[in-house]
Write a structure and sequence with these properties.
Helix content: over 70%
Radius of gyration: 20 Å
Shape: globular
Structural class: mainly alpha
Number of strands: 2
Largest sheet: 2 strands, parallel
Order of helices and strands: HHHHHHHHEHHHEH
């Protein structure tokens, strides 16, 4: 089934994004119950993860209870769709918009720092972008300091930029439209490569 979808992924990508939050939510439920994927350190917070996930769905049900019956499905799909599209666009634009590295480049040529700088891209910050992305448009800073609260990422951005400039390191940032078309180009390239291998 997947083989039939990949050649057209650059066409349906924008339409597919609203469904990603539902897919990721289901994956969270499955993952929490899959003992084979969890390490010892994570087991300490597992009860809190389960608790917050249950609380989330309780709040969703309470919200839907107060929506008129005629609009319940629409309200649910709208709320999940907006969240899904927002998360998906941020994730895709911060990662898929970057040039891909070959396997040998990961171990032979680059450190942890340079890998994050080459495989991650920020969306140009601004009041609206920062609010819509919740701070995750500072994806370079998020990758370098994954435990840092999102509202602090903008504070370290000038420090990272100065460091990169001083040491002649890349610091990738682009506006929303440029990132979007870069994602489309990457998806199209993969789709064409896949179609080519299928024909051989």
């Amino acid at each position: 089934m997947v083989g039939y979808l990949i050649p057209y992924q650059h066409y349906y990508f924008p339409i597919f994004t609203p469904f990603l939050k539902l897919i990721w939510s289901l994956q969270s439920v499955f993952w929490l119950n899959d003992k084979t994927t969890q390490n010892k350190s994570y087991e300490r917070s597992l009860i809190y993860e389960k608790g917050t996930l249950i609380l989330h769905w309780i709040l969703v049900i309470i919200f839907l209870y107060h929506v008129p019956n005629t609009y319940k499905l629409f309200a649910f799909m709208l709320s999940e769709g907006i969240g899904g599209a927002g998360i998906a666009l941020v994730v895709f634009m911060n990662h898929y918009a970057c040039e891909k590295l070959h396997d040998e480049e990961f171990t032979k040529e680059h450190s942890f720092l340079t890998l994050q700088l080459l495989t991650t891209k920020n969306m140009t910050p601004g009041v609206i972008v920062d609010w819509l992305c919740g701070g995750l448009n500072y994806q370079i800073e998020h990758h370098l300091f994954p435990t840092m609260p999102r509202h602090k990422l903008s504070k370290v951005r000038p420090i990272i930029m100065d460091f990169c400039k001083k040491h002649n390191l890349p610091y990738q940032t682009d506006d929303f439209i440029t990132c979007f078309w870069a994602v489309e180009a990457q998806l199209k390239e993969v789709a064409e490569a896949f179609s080519k291998t299928k024909r051989q």
